[in-house]
What we know:
Number of strands of chain B: 8
Distance between the termini of chain B: 47 Å
Strand order of the largest sheet of chain B: 2-1-8-5
Shape of chain B: elongated
Low-confidence stretches of chain B: 1-6
Number of helices of chain B: 1
Structural class of chain B: mainly beta
Oligomer: heterodimer
Amino acid sequence: MTITPTGSAPWLHxxxxxxxxxxxxxxxxxxxxxVNAQTDVTAQQFSRLTADLAAVQRVAPFAVINYTNNDLTxxxxxxxxxxxxxxxxxxxxxxxxxxxGFPSAARNGDGDVTFTFxxxxxxxxxxxxxxxxxxxxxxxxxxxxxxxxxxxxxTDTTVQVVTITDTGAxxxxxxxxxxxxx
Amino acid sequence: MSFGAFSGGLPQRLGGSxxxxxxxxxxARVCADLLAAVRTLPYATLVADGTTITSYRAMPxxxxxxxxxxxxxxxxxxxxxxxxxxxxxxxxxxxVKIVASRGSGIDSGVIVNTSVLAxxxxxxxxxxxxxAGAVPVSEKFKLKVWT
Lengths: 182, 147
């Protein structure tokens, strides 16, 4: 029988330490502590585990993407690496031909792309959660220096990333890393 | 007999009260959320002033001995070389292959760009420029890398 975990998909950031098994009144059975540190986990240790995981779940980004703009011969950007909370890529892909479960990317102009994510995603246990992007950050990875990359969450599911030079002109053919938060 | 009577050592039997137990559904949520976070959290973040690391956070740990080495490559460009085979708390070794990086300046007007050295994927270039394209006076930068 397939199990349904407690709580919600992690990118909703609503899971508490209690969803992980924590409880303010957690205690060792019959108030006995660890007899053997190599085989026993105490209530205190377990409580720390649940509290720290809740903390991590609150701030973990939903996605990290590394891509390269195709401007000299205009085309959708090449997506080099994607790390989503729901999975990671094993190979690069063209932005207009994403594998299932990964975002697409469209070229708007030189150094200007828009990423489109799905409206919802499913965690490893099949629990679905809506995607609501509330912020993104970007950094340019060359080949030029002095390039400014900015990321803007346009909607709950789209992020625009623009690269410009220090003179304000569009920066072509740059590789960029963007971090997306929900 | 309650599940608690079987507790007291690994392997863990799931079940029991909220005060003394750990249910299967709670365990499942732990597994799912931990894996989700591991996929997207950075391998390391650091703040540096030239070759001096002023703040460092990384998955293998924070000890000074495990921190990367920062070297001046050319004016305004630094290389940040991470340990190629760090160990976790259980001495499990894994290679460091950086696939994404992001830098940012600390002082006003400083633009920071980063790139992974192609043939040494545990080393990152960090280039600092001001808004006129020149090497800035400030040598401070922040770096975040993912594997």
